[in-house]
Specification:
Order of helices and strands: HHHHHHHHHH
Shape: globular
Structural class: mainly alpha
């Protein structure tokens, strides 16, 4: 479990620099350049992600059950996950969905984490999904207090929302029926 904790600390820590120490981040970018900063940031993030994923996989081998979710929570989790791939796509495809949600990727993380907390009750689940849920909430609050910077998105297009819905629902059903089982060894529908 320590590998999961270390991985989460590195991953979420690196993703919290702009929120926690924005001036230090700006100073570092001025000092070493944007490309070098992004390279180091990416490297640290990848290390944290790999450690967290591996640590979670190891922790799943000997799970410590904290609570047993009622069966209905699995159904709620499946329903909460419907908008998640749509919101992920909306974060890079400007349109009405992106405008209405303002921060679709953070909303996707919050829904994804909440759904997984409802459906899973091990210590590793609570640590991973609880940490991400809290982190996404804190980032969302911090975004209200700081100026909005440039966003990396694809060009605006009149069909972006349609693409988000069609492709997002396709991804949702692909994960629900095949990819979740293949990637994580867990079938969401049982």
């Amino acid at each position: 479990m320590s590998e999961l904790v270390i991985g989460l600390a590195i991953f979420l820590g690196s993703h919290s620099i702009g929120m926690m120490v924005p001036q230090w981040r700006a100073d570092m970018i001025r000092r070493i350049g944007d490309r070098t900063w992004m390279g180091l940031y990416s490297l640290v993030s990848i290390v944290g992600l790999v450690l967290a994923v591996h640590g979670f996989a190891v922790a799943r081998r000997a799970p410590l059950l904290l609570y047993a979710p009622p069966t209905v929570f699995h159904t709620v989790a499946v329903l909460l996950m419907v908008p998640v791939p749509l919101l992920v796509l909306a974060s890079v495809l400007p349109g009405k969905i992106q405008a209405a949600t303002r921060h679709p990727l953070l909303l996707a993380v919050k829904l994804w984490a909440l759904a997984h907390l409802l459906a899973n009750g091990t210590a590793a689940d609570v640590l991973l999904f609880g940490s991400l849920l809290i982190w996404a909430g804190l980032v969302r609050v911090s975004l209200r207090r700081r100026p909005r910077g440039p966003r990396a998105t694809l060009p605006p297009g009149r069909w972006n929302d349609a693409v988000v819905v069609v492709l997002g629902l396709g991804l949702y059903f692909a994960f629900l029926l095949w990819f979740h089982q293949w990637l994580f060894g867990v079938a969401p529908l049982g």
